[in-house]
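Many introductory courses stop at the sequence. We go one step further.
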Amino acid sequence: MNNKVLIKLKVPDLDDTYDVFIPINRKIGNVIELLNKSLGELTKGVYQGTKRQNLYNKYTGNRYNNNSLVVDTDIRNGTHVILI
């Protein structure tokens, strides 16, 4: 799994946290779309994400640029991120 990292994803809208593998060669914006789709399926349509959402580092509060590749950010295995 060298092309993915395992993150802790906090979703305040669902008041829950998930362990999720994300691809390192995709842009953050694409990852957000994948997460929204997966969360929608997981919650049987209860969760409906938007394109206006962003990923934030839980500890620094920094927002990840939607055009950045995951591999070019500080997201590594075990990174805690928030989707809002």
